[in-house]
Amino acid sequence: MTFVFGSLVVLCIIFPFKVRYRMGKGWAKAVLKLAEICCGVRHEVEGLEHINADSAAIVLSNHQSAWETLAFRCLLPPQTSLFKQSLLWIPFWGWAMATLKPIAIDRNNKHAALRKLISHGTEALKQGLWVVVFPEGTRMPVSEMGNFSAGGAMLAQKSGYPVIPIAHNAGKFWPRYSFLKYPGTIKVKIGSPIESKSRKTADINKEAEDWIIQAMREIGQ
Fold first, then answer.
1. Is the CB of residue 26 less than 8 Å from the CB of residue 74?
2. How many Cβ atoms are within 10 Å of 214's Cβ, its own excluded?
3. Long-range pairs for 89-95 at CB < 8 Å and ≥24 separation?
4. pLDDT score at 77
């Protein structure tokens, strides 16, 4: 499916962004549906009322799996996301992602990466796209939470757009770096918007991190 849909997205480069995005979203939906049918991986979402499709926002979420990178394409309004520039070289998937207005950064140059996130992220928000950021920077084990980098919160502070915190336990059923999937229901919690205007970056980041930590405790219970 990655070969088929990835190729179609690349071939649709001559069409408007909306066409390519719908194609990519269709691929994500198909993969999630097959995961449900073949592996028994389902999901339930709490807090969808906090999603306003008419207003762009910055998503800060914990990162455990490849599942959320697919699911957020289906659960949230049209979006761009922050990820490693090297991923664009992955055949078909990476080539397709390169056509979907990604914010691809070089992690070895943190200052340049932050500048790119702020500039490209603000531009995307003004275009009505949501910006998805995983502050931990990499997929973490289910039992661990990585340190939250402040890049996403700084984007919110400088752009004035709100932050939507999201917590999930996808890694429990769709583990990182594993081919195997396990049947069960992934739980997703979406928080209310965190305002960023006239606030410090550290305060925005801390509020989002605290909310996600508490939400993960509730999901664990």
1. no
2. 14
3. 91/6, 92/2, 92/3, 92/6, 92/7, 92/10, 93/2, 93/6, 95/6, 95/10
4. 96
Domain extents for the chain? 42-81+102-220
**16-59 confidence digits (pLDDT tens):** 989 989 988 999 999 999 999 999 999 999 999 999 999 999 99
Contacts of 182 (CB under 8 A, 6+ apart): 39, 40, 41, 172, 173, 174, 175
Compute the distance between CA of residue 23 and CA of residue 53 in angstroms, rounded to an integer: 19
DSSP letters spanning 22-53: HHHHHHHHHHHHHHHHHH-EEEEEE-GGG--T
Give the mean pLDDT of 200-217.
96
- Summarised one tens digit per residue, pLDDT across range 94-134 is 888 888 888 888 878 888 889 999 999 999 999 999 999 99
Yes or no: say if 133 and 28 are a contact pair by the CB < 8 Å rule.
no
What global pTM score does this model have? 0.93
Q: Which residues of 84-93 are buried (b: 16+ CB within 10 A; e: fewer)?
A: ebeebeeebb
The CA-based diameter of the chain, rounded to the nearest angstrom, is 49
Give the Cα separation of 157 and 150 in Å (integer): 10
Q: How far is CA 171 from the centre of its chain?
A: 14
Backbone angles phi, psi at 132, to 5 degrees: -100, 125
